[in-house]
Amino acid sequence: MTWLDVEIVLVSLAAMLSPTTLTFSVLALVLGERPLRTGFWFYLGAFGATIGIGVVAAFVLGDAAASHTPSSPKTWVAVLDIVFAAALLVLAVRLLRSPPKPEQEASAIARMSKLASSPAVAVLGAGATLANPGAFIPIALKNISELDPSAAQYVVDWLFFAIVSTLPLAIAIVLLLVARDWAMRVLERARDWLLRHAQTVAAVIVVLLALVLLRNGISGLRS
């Protein structure tokens, strides 16, 4: 496994554990009378938006970040890695130093409570905006472009990122299909836990990703 492989795994995990994504995903399921309906459209919005961005990027970015010598990335890519690393470290500090505020929690609950009874198209749009991988998408696109993938490999890599980044919501929907009452109890407990600890867990993964990006960036500039 190369450093680029480690990077794509970490950026996928960081996107998956994003406190905002996790919190809104869980709230979408536990606050409505029809959690499967809400969860399905919310997931479809998030997954569809992520896939759509990947399709556009395949034509716009392609293999622009690939280097003829994978161990020595292009200079602009190395600089971008360092910029991304710095931004992620700032994000990690903010996650650790800014615990969730009661008013923010109340606002999120109120927003998702209203959404749970909204038309399907509204839930779809909310999933696309609230549960997509967000700021981690540019890092994933850069990483996959560096791998100089074939069309098939690009599809596989982007599907991996899209699936992993939205995996908690997909698992929750499956659990609701298999054992709804048990799944709802688990989700209720998960909501309380996420409101207290999600930022700390996310910060750890973000720091690891930042360190890998920093290592790759410095290595590229020195080579």
Write the layout of secondary structure elements.
Elements lengths: L2 H14 L2 H12 L4 H26 L14 H23 L4 H15 L3 H11 L5 H11 L4 H15 L1 H12 L1 H43 L1
Describe what is shown at a glance:
This protein has 223 residues and is mainly alpha-helical.
Keywords for this structure?
mainly alpha
N to C succession of SSEs:
HHHHHHHHHH
The helix content, as a percent range, equals over 70%
Poorly predicted regions: none
N/C terminus separation: 20 Å
Helix/strand/pairing class, anyone? mainly alpha
Strand content: under 5%
- Counting DSSP E segments of at least 2 residues, the number of strands comes to 0
Report the mean per-residue pLDDT as an integer: 83
Radius of gyration: 18 Å
**Anisotropy-based shape:** globular
Number of helices: 10
Reported for the largest beta sheet, the result is: none
What does this structure look like?
With 223 residues, the protein is an all-alpha fold. 82% of the residues lie in helices and 0% in strands. The two termini are 20 Å apart.
